[in-house]
Structures are given as C-alpha cells and as structure tokens.
Design goal:
By secondary structure, this protein is an alpha/beta fold. It has 17 helices and 23 strands. Strands 8-7-9-10-6-11-12-13-14 form a nine-stranded mixed beta sheet. A seven-stranded mixed beta sheet has the order 17-18-16-15-19-22-23.
C-alpha cells in the first residue's frame, strides 16, 4: 500500500429515498438501521482527507433526506476535498439551495431518466417537473449542474420530433391519421415507430394492405433488427383485422393504409367515401374500447388533403401531415389537429439510407448552404407551434422582357407576395410594375405566417437594388396595407433563437423593441414602417 493515493470516492450517505425505483442499484427506499452516525461520518471524512482523497460524490438513496448532510459536506469541503452531490431533485428548495452554497458543494447532478412519461413511470407522477425545477433553480443560482440518467429500454430510440408533434408522446387509446404524398416516407416513419416501440418491449402490430411481407421486410432491414414484440399482418378485411387485434391485444397498431381497408357489410369498393368512413369508425371503436393506440395512413389528393370524406379528419384525435419534396433529403411532419397538445407543431427529419433521422436544430439545418454577400437573401424567423424557426427567404427581381411581368412563389402564398409588392410601389415609390419577381423559401418548407412579411419585403428590395444585406441579420414583422410594420406573437423567443445561432442584429416591429431588448446581447433595430426599414438598411 506504499504510495497509495485515493483520488476520489462515492459515498452512499443514506439509503432513505423518496422513491423505490425498480432499477436502483442501491436498493434505496428506507434508511438502514446500521447507517453511520454524524460523529462516525465526521471521522470518516477526516480519514478520507488523510488518505489524500481529492473528490467525494455524496449519493443515496436521497442525500437530502439525511438531516446532517450539509454538516458532513461542509466538513469534507473544509478539509480541502471537492464535494459533489447527486440527487433526484424532488426535495430541492431555496433552503436546500442555500445549504449547498454554505457547505461549499462544488456541483450538483440531478437524475432525469428520459422524457416526462418515462421518468414519471419509473419514479412517481410529478417527479419530472420537480427535477426540472431543481435544474432551473441550480442554474439560476450559478451552481454547476449536470444531468445523469439510467439507460432503459423504454427511453432508447425515442423519436423526440414525433413526440413533440404529438404533444409529448403516443397517447393510449388515441386514433392518429398520418397523411402525405406518395413516397414521402409515411410508411418508413411508422415502421421506425414500430421498431423503437418493439425494441423497448411494447407489443406492436403492423397491418399492411398495400405491400407484401417481403417488401416490408426489405424496408425493415434498413432500420435494424426487430424484436419478437413486432407483429406483421398483410390483410385488408376489417373483420379479420378486428379479430386479430382482439386476440393479440397489441399496445400500438399501424394501418397502412386506410384506403385499402374494406368492411364486407358495405357494398362500395375499397377507398370509396363509404368504405373509408366505415373503416375509420370500426378502428375508432377498437382504439377507444380496448385502449389501443392506432395510427392510420391516408393518401392525399392533388390539393394536398387526405383523400376520402372530410369527416375522416373529424373522427380521429390527431391529424399529421408529412411534407417536403420526396426528391430532397428533408421531411417536415406537421400537426394540423391534436386533441392532446398544441396544433401546427412541426418535427423535422432527414431521409437517409437507414431511414429517417431527427433534425434536432432545424433552424441551423434550414440555413445550411446560404450564399455569401448575395443580394435578395434575408433570414426571417417564423413560429411553428411553440418552436421558433429561422428560414432563408430568397427573391429575384429583374426587368421583364414580356408585356405582362411574371410573378412566381415557392413555399409561401402567391397573392401575399403580390400584395407586398403593391405596398412597396404605393407607399415607398419602388417601381416594380415592370419587373419579374420570384420569391422562394429554401428548405422546401411552406410558411403562411404573416411574420415573414418584413423578410419578403427586404429580400425583394435587396434584389431590386442589387445590394446585399448583413448576412448576420434576422428580420420579422407583419406588413399592413398602409406600409406599417405590425407586432407579431412571441417576439422575444424569436430574437433569442437568432441570438442562439450567432446572429448579430435583429430587425423587429418598433412596438416590440423594448420587449426584445430585455436580456438580449444582439443589436435590436425597431422599424415602424416599410419606408423606415428602407431608410435604415439601404
């Protein structure tokens, strides 16, 4: 033992705990009768210091359930030992926070096992919110804080982007409609859901009326090995499907697609209005009666709406649309109806050889490949549900060689662009009547929010005058018919998103200037009208 030096150790201070997690390595829950007394702990602290121990992590159970924890931590810190505390965060309070500071604790780690449903299922309802409140309190107090997690099957492979759009995750007994163009990736997305759920030990039934088992197997092989919890059925008869669901009792069912299903009691052909309506009604009864989450795939018409009766969207709990160019790599999942969360939330995915990969920072993804010092390019900020999203607006304005100038838009409303050009000509004297104009939103995303009006106007002006704007600038605001720039919702969140991605200035409606300036490190410019924006930026 000569020359031995103890660098660090983990001290299980008590086994008393607020929870009794089945996966706890310490078998925490109640305090043991033979736990060290305060005096014995003080002696142990001195022995650790004598051994040259430089770092001690205090764990439990739950450390804060021991009344003398602060005294023990303070003793260790007084002996020159770095003290870290690992907690579930449930007992965090202003008093405990003050004790951490007074005791000289160097850092705190909070246990968070995954999303709220996963965390609470393993501990108790409300524990996730308490843990997150603890993290926020520690951060506000400038206490170094980290998060530790226990890797579990039910939180592996989660599609967080899908969970966001669904309002937090799959709801038991829900009926969800997934629509999109052919080849966009609807089946791939749902097959990945099946893969993740079955890997986590959930029983899943995938029912296909369009593809054979061999075709589905070929697609599934790209996603990885499936477990025995994944069941596959190729069938279109709803009587047989209902019987299989009742006997197998899966937790999640995928129907691909609703247009191929038929009920023998209805004389109409599969895909007809009557069959789609009746088939959805049967699936709705199964979902609600048996508590099964059912996803149904719906094909879309040329207009982009789900084929079949409009009542179909009224019958289901959630409607999701898969958008994007099937020849491009990106995909956007948009929630247009959700009884369990906010609508118009989006999730962004990238199509790869191995399936759909989540894009955790869509703003950064959408801005990849921006041209440098090019006229007609402006970054705007839009809100998709509760998520701020930065997008690049491009405009190309040139003299028309035809009698009637051409106008074309991609990703935004054609009539809205014409209106904004009319405002520019009437209120600011910009002669655009003899010019062709092309406006494009890069990334293939479709935006209808009026907040991008100011960005479109600035992009058109930039191209018309052939003058590049600051590439580190973001603009947002609604433009009225009088040329005024109106306020938009969640302005501060938009500025924060721009700041997070390294932008240096932000052009906002003047009425939102004071709100946006608070706590912002980037330059915020308030404009009251289109003419005001022209005077400041050109």
């Amino acid at each position: 033992m000569s020359g031995f030096r103890l660098e660090g150790c983990v001290w299980e201070l008590t086994l008393a705990c607020c929870f009794g997690c089945r996966y706890c390595g310490s078998a925490g829950g109640r305090a043991r009768a033979d736990e060290l007394s305060t005096a014995e702990c003080m002696d142990a602290a001195e022995q650790l210091a004598d051994l040259g121990c430089r770092r001690v992590s205090l764990i439990g159970g739950e450390v804060f359930l021991r009344r003398d924890w602060a005294q023990i931590a303070g003793r260790l810190a007084g002996l020159g030992v770095r003290v870290d505390v690992i907690t579930n965060g449930y007992l965090m309070s202003p008093e405990v926070l003050e004790q951490l500071k007074q005791a000289g604790v160097s850092s705190v780690a909070v246990s968070i096992d995954g999303p709220e449903d996963v965390h609470d299922a393993g501990r108790q309802a409300g524990s996730f919110k308490r843990a997150m409140e603890a993290v926020r309190a520690l951060t506000a107090a400038r206490m170094p804080v980290s998060v530790i997690s226990t890797l579990r099957r039910d939180c592996m492979g989660r599609l967080e982007e899908l969970d966001r759009v669904l309002g937090g995750g799959i709801v038991q007994g829900s009926l969800t409609l997934v629509g999109g163009d052919p080849g966009i990736g609807k089946s791939t997305l749902l097959l990945q859901v099946c893969h993740n759920l079955s890997t986590a030990g959930h029983k899943v039934l995938y029912i296909s009326g369009e593809e054979s088992k061999v075709q589905i197997k070929m697609r599934a092989d790209r996603l990885g090995a499936f477990s025995e919890h994944m069941l596959l059925l190729c069938e279109t008869n709803l009587d047989i499907i209902s019987e299989v669901i009742r006997k197998s009792k899966p937790e999640v069912v995928i129907i691909d697609s609703i247009q191929t299903m038929y009920n023998e009691n209805v004389s109409a052909a599969p895909g007809s209005v009557s069959q789609v309506r009746e088939s959805t009604g049967i699936l709705l009864q199964l979902a609600k009666g048996l508590g099964i989450s059912i996803f149904i795939v719906g094909h879309v018409t040329k207009e982009g709406t789900v084929a079949g009766p409009r009542v179909l969207e009224h019958m289901v709990d959630t409607v999701l649309y898969f958008e994007g160019d099937r020849h491009a790599s990106y995909r956007i999942l948009r929630g247009v109806k959700n009884r369990f969360g906010s609508t118009n939330e989006i999730g962004v995915f990238e199509m790869r050889e191995t399936g759909l990969a989540e894009v955790k920072n869509p703003s950064e993804y959408m801005l990849n490949g921006r041209p440098e010092n090019a006229s007609g390019s402006v970054v705007a900020c839009t809100m998709e549900g509760t998520r701020p999203l930065l997008i690049e607006l491009q405009a190309l304005v040139c003299h028309s060689n035809f009698g009637i100038p051409r106008r074309q838009t991609t990703g935004t409303d054609f009539n809205r662009v014409n209106l904004l050009m009319a405002v520019l000509e009437k209120r600011s004297g910009v002669q655009l009547s003899s010019c062709d104009a092309y406006v494009n939103i890069t990334g293939g995303i479709k935006i209808q929010e009026p907040a991008i009006d100011l960005g479109i106007v600035l992009a058109i002006l930039s191209s018309f005058r052939n003058k590049a704007l600051n590439p580190k600038m973001v603009a947002f605001g609604e433009v009225g018919l009088s040329g005024e720039v109106r306020a938009v919702s969640m302005a501060k969140q938009r500025v924060a998103e721009a700041e997070k991605l390294g932008f240096e200035e932000c052009v906002v409606p003047y009425v939102s200037l004071e709100e946006c300036k608070k706590g912002s490190k980037i330059r915020v410019i308030g404009v009251s009208s289109v003419q005001d924006a022209m005077d400041r930026l050109f």
